[in-house]
Cell division protein ZapE
Amino acid sequence: MTTATTTDSQTATTALCAVRPRVPVDRLVTDLVPPRHFANARFATYRANPAHPSQGRALARLTEIAQEIAAPRRGLFARRKPAPAVYLDGGFGVGKTHLLTSLAHAVGEALGPVHGTSSAAYGTFVEYTNLVGALGFLPTVEALAAKKLVCIDEFELDDAGDTTIMSRLMRELADRGVALAATSNTLPDALGEGRFAAQDFQREIKALSDRFETLRVDGEDYRHRDVVTDSEPLTDGDVAAAAARPGATLDGFDDLLAHLATVHPSRYGALLDGVSVVALTGVHAVTAQEVALRLVVLVDRLYDRDVPVLLGGSGDTRGLFTEEMLAGGYRKKYYRALSRLGALAEEGRKLV
């Protein structure tokens, strides 16, 4: 459940800063499904660009993997065959998440529910690490071992603890015959590069890398970030006026950034329950990396839920992160966020 300033879902929530999301533990498991933005994503709706043949190859291979997971295992040695483990690597905006959610849908629809829930689990990297923190390691293994497929989106290791947790979790699931699939903007043997002392954890990183069949997905950002970020910025007055609608929130940018520091990133999705538009005044460049990374997670959850944004202040998403950030170890996260935020901001402008 989520506590907010209102109880009527048809009434605008005053501000995200007023929301203190409380997520029951059982919801952490039941929420492991493809997000709203990809509810209709299927292999048949993925449009592979013939100019980038790797897209078609990835589509064909994932279709095979879905059939392999869904097919019943027969014979004396069927259990000894390792379950598939696939890793989609490529830039932002090339359709990796579309492919991953299509795989989850295909397996879930082919096998039907298991104990009342989907046979495929789907979540972001931070959601799985938070699940371990909330349930404990062994209960998490037991909960996910009941699935036929576990999908991990945005697989990027930001600290040594996450490296160890995810390496061990995947090993346990793979040993129990659970298929694994992940997306990232970083090749599995380069996870953690530029972010922490990766050389001290090469064994764990190599263990992760060795478990996956890597599928490269090349292409251009289909959200056309260079286009959607060139619009004229909105004034704070425009933003405040446009936020006067049901389901909209209105926050000062600095206030929201401060509030995000008080909410665990795994709860940012719950923070947006019932929200149809997010309006922000006083938007400016973010200079602290820990603040920027929290903002990246919020942008991802906004994108998952197709929530348009209204950006006042500078309103220039291109200058949201510093040049140093865009050249550092988290650069692919930041560029993904800019791509997604630009698309959401363009949707927000249509409301003005």
Summary: Residues 224 and 339 are 7 Å apart (CA to CA). The two ends are 31 Å apart (CA to CA).
